[in-house]
Amino acid sequence: MTSALPPCPECRSPYAYEAGSLLTCPECGHEWSADAAPESGAEVRDSVGNLLVDGDTVTVIKDLKLKGSSQVIKVGTKVRGIRLVDGDHDIDCRLPGVGQIGLKSQFVKKVTD
């Protein structure tokens, strides 16, 4: 029996079910609207293939020079509370001492606790 419902956007479980107007994952308990279900090509993954979601904490895996500035974001810099956006720089975040910037997901690694 194959479900026609999309997998859970949090843990990718294929066992999502309908609970009223929401979809629910029995494995992680995440609930989301069927209308807001992500498209299959809308996934953002870090440099090692971990799925990224809004609010994740990531670390920078390579020194990154800031365009138009002499500042450098060093390897190992922790970025908390990322926000995923469309475009080439698919992570929007705020760094202390730098401000609001966009990062490419290929230069970060998800921090797992």
Automatic annotation (TrEMBL):
Gene3D superfamilies: 2.20.25.10, SH3 Domains (2.30.30.40)
Entry keywords, A to Z: Plasmid
InterPro entries in the cross-refs: YjdM, YjdM_C, YjdM_N
All copies of domain Protein YjdM N-terminal, residue ranges: 5-33
Domain Protein YjdM C-terminal: 44-111
Family: Belongs to the YjdM family.
NCBIfam families, per database record: phnA
Protein name: Alkylphosphonate utilization protein
